[in-house]
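Appendix B. Chain record.
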Amino acid sequence: MSPSTPIVTLGEGSTPLLRAARLSAAPGVEVWLKCEGVNPTGSFKDRGMALAVAKAVEAGARAVVCASTGNTAASAAAYAARAGLEAIVVHAAGGPSSSKLAQVRVTGARLVEIEGTFDDAFAAAEELAEREGAVVVNSTNPDRIEGQKTAALEIVEQLGGLPDVLALPYGGGGNTVAYAKGFLEAGFPALEIVPVEAADRAATTASAIRIPTPVHRAEVEDALARSGGAIVSVTDDEIAMAWRSLARGEGVFCEPASAAALAGVDLSSLAEGTRVVLVLTGHGLKDPDALDRLREPGS
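Structure tokens predicted for this chain:
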């Protein structure tokens, strides 16, 4: 930020880091949950969006545009409304949950639905930005990364040190890049980061990470080469099991994509005393229809 950057905020950040007592007890590891779903629009996106929209205002933009599976859309719409800008949201038909689209509609943002995947929506958003002079506020905007890296700094402060392992959902990869940047700048380049993706990226029921091609793939690979972490792929069944485990064992209701963080870490294989942080990126009310989609067999 510069002295001329306006403050655009809805009270994002300072989210809880909760000790997961039951998850910690069985394998003898120390498990913590970074609950990003308590951000103003219900997801981690608010951290970066606050800065990206503020910088757009500083640059004299009249509008912001994004492609989204839902959470970016809700955040962009809210922060644009806060700043007095127009928000244009491009999404693939059948992509975002109705709850996320409701968050967009209530702000009066312009919704553009296209056929295809998130990749197609992103290409369309870039075309719209060029044609209408809008600022793209997807994670390709470096201000988004700068805002999101604050979560890494918070974890270090809340823990009073560094976790041994940090696991988080892997969709486009921007959040992985942001955490890696935050830890690196805090002087901790070797933290093991585990980005967890859906095995079937294009059709996963975890809609927030239903992104066929991660735009930050090269940057994620570079970050993992520094940290020693590795990408893990999990099935939708594994995500559903972890999602129910978080709710029933820890009382934390997150959207399915968030549970990928737990699904991707084999806690029983870790040395006793290992400190693990699982990043839960979105609130469960972002996708309440998951209760039916992920219903247990016979229930």
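Further analysis of this model is presented in Appendix C.
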